[in-house]
Amino acid sequence: MTGRWLVTGAAGMLGTDLVAVLADAGHEVTAAARRDLDVTDAAAVAAAVDGHDVVINAAAYTDVDGAESDPGRAMAVNGDAVAHVAAACAAAGARLLHVSTDYVLPGDATAPYPEDAPTGPLNAYGRSKLAGERAVLAALPESGYVVRTAWLYGEHGRSFVATMLRLAAGDGAVDVVDDARGQPTWTRPLAAGLVELGEAALAGRAAGVYHATAAGAATWYELARAVFAMAGSDPARVRPTSSDRFPRPAPRPAYSVLGHGRWAAAGLAPLAPWHDMLAVALRRPGFAAVRAGAR
Ligand SMILES: NC(=O)c1ccc[n+]([C@@H]2O[C@H](COP(=O)([O-])OP(=O)(O)OC[C@H]3O[C@@H](n4cnc5c(N)ncnc54)[C@H](OP(=O)(O)O)[C@@H]3O)[C@@H](O)[C@H]2O)c1
After folding, report:
1. Residue 79: CB partners within 8 Å, gap ≥ 6?
2. Model confidence, pTM
3. Distance (Å, rounded) from C-alpha 102 to C-alpha 105?
4. Which of 15, 117, 144, 227 could covalently link to 164 via disulfide, CB atoms 3.0 to 4.6 Å apart?
5. For the segment 20-52, what is each residue's pLDDT rounded down to a tens digit?
6. Is 125 annotated as catalytic?
7. How far apart, in whole angstroms, are the C-alpha atoms of residue 269 and residue 275?
8. Ligand 1 centre from 292 Cα, in Å?
9. Mutational test site, ligand 1, from 6, 14, 113, max ligand atoms within 8 Å of CB
């Protein structure tokens, strides 16, 4: 059973890769970008979801600092609209894969967070994403899949990795924070993992919270050094610094490493170690264009 799939937020960084992976796998997919479907419009969501077997909600308000000054807008898209999507899936009998974030967690752990770790977001974006998670789990206890991911980069969006590639092409020193740890994750293999989970969902795999991030962990400084080295630039140009040198409106978790126990228990293929994943990603045309200064 391949089913009919709907991707919301289809023009976003992850959404673009999701649509490509689904099409490559021969799935029937409706790609709904924001201009096609505004997820805050409950009636439009109900109409769009109808007739689909799997919905992947990749639409989100992702401006983490912007959410501090406009928490209502973040909540409308990341909380209230997710409730609309979940209700529509319940009415249509569709499975929902909802993409969430490490930012629902407090970031004060010293070992990878299990899926059932207590939540405790540090910022307005995280609180809005937690509201979305709760809406999915409440409306779809048997068919709602909350998939937390983190530290994304992709060929079709803005990311830390793309910024470092641009800086690597220049010269001089670059100061990068060394006091936050996470799992840099490329959207393309994440998309493949989400599709695998969607197929497992159609086959009746248990609903609930899953974590999907690259294996291993790195600080932003370690990630930047790896990008410089892979781009053929001197990694010694990257210097470690602390996050208090770069104050931002939204506080960030210091430790964002997610455990993959439920993913493995469901028999899903593990995502690669972050360093190997990055090496493959940087050979793709989208990142070559960034290196060449074309984007
Ligand atoms: N990026 C990361 O590092 C990261 C980390 C952890 C989790 N996540 C999660 O991963 C998912 C995908 O994020 P991403 O990195 O691909 O972000 P993205 O590139 O910003 O994609 C989000 C998409 O949602 C669209 N959108 C915003 N409001 C909408 C609305 N009301 N109706 C329909 N679409 C709407 C955006 O359109 P516009 O561009 O036109 O606003 C954008 O195309 C999100 O759930 C995010 O919370 C991301």
Report:
1. 128, 129, 131, 132, 135
2. 0.97
3. 6
4. 227
5. 999 999 999 999 999 999 999 999 999 999 999
6. yes
7. 17
8. 26
9. 14
